[in-house]
Design goal:
Helix content is 21%, strand content 40%. It is built from four helices and 19 strands. Strands 2, 5, 6, 9, 10 and 11 form a six-stranded mixed beta sheet that branches. Strands 12-13-17-16 form a four-stranded antiparallel beta sheet, with no helix packed on it. A four-stranded antiparallel beta sheet has the order 15-14-18-19, with no helix packed on it. Helix 1 packs antiparallel against helix 2. The protein binds 2-acetamido-2-deoxy-beta-D-glucopyranose (2 copies).
Length: 272
Amino acid sequence: MLSEMHRGLILMNRGWTQRILLYFMVAGTRSLVTVHQPAVLTTALGDDVMMPCHLSLSHDERMLAQPVLYWTLTQNTTDSVRMFPSQEYERRVELLDKSRTTSNKSIVLKNVQWADSGKYLCKLSITTQRDSSFRMRGSETSLKVYDTVTFDLAAHNGSLLRCEVNVTPDPGFRLSISHNGSELQTADSEPGDARAAPHYVTLSETVPLRGEGEYECQLHLNRDLITKSVFYHLPDPAVGVLPEPWLLYVALLLVHATILLSLIAALLLHRC
Ligand SMILES: *[C@@H]1O[C@H](CO)[C@@H](O)[C@H](O)[C@H]1NC(C)=O
Ligand SMILES: *[C@@H]1O[C@H](CO)[C@@H](O)[C@H](O)[C@H]1NC(C)=O
């Protein structure tokens, strides 16, 4: 009876998402089949990134056929492109666990580029015993890319320390600079302008160089530390380099002294 009822509802709705939602409403509070994806992933430009996707079935549910897996990518537009399986992405996308029976549907996207930022969706066509075929999707993984953080003295002013990084446009990205562990008020910060290059913005922060010690520039996405770069402001370079040559000079002097002493000893022996 229940089964008849939800099948009827399923046929009435066109969008498969709606079908699944109704299915769950009719079948009860517990979902029988779910697809899990992380909401956000960050990766360094040029790296390979794993995009997790995990299928889970409740213990009393059984699949009648192997699920069919698709991954799609949606960028700024509303159109999505299929990236797995796909000829276009064949060289860059790899299914991690190739066995079709596995619940691990994660893929690896290789050599990540700026244009790869976007929303990745893991979709499965499933056929279960309780219900005939239906499609199931995860809740999208948003991929954000960042480049190397540069942290050095400003080119135009040696008493300023400047931190810079290119990132996927996202208001959640933030740079902060600390000196010996305490955060500094930045003198000049640029929020980044996406007009020049559509796929990334440049964030930059500048602080006056205050004293010796360790300066650290951190890139955060909301509350998470993504990457950091360290700058050491050492004591006067002349003082810093001193110990090494002195040791060398002393060693050289010792060698010469040893040779001289041996010669003198040899001469004295010869005379005797
Ligand atoms: C899926 O498989 C990959 C590669 O074997 C592994 O690194 C990853 O942790 C797996 N994910 C889960 C959820 O088991
Ligand atoms: C460098 O910047 C500091 C702080 O903004 C300023 O006081 C100083 O005059 C600048 N020096 C030069 C050479 O521009």
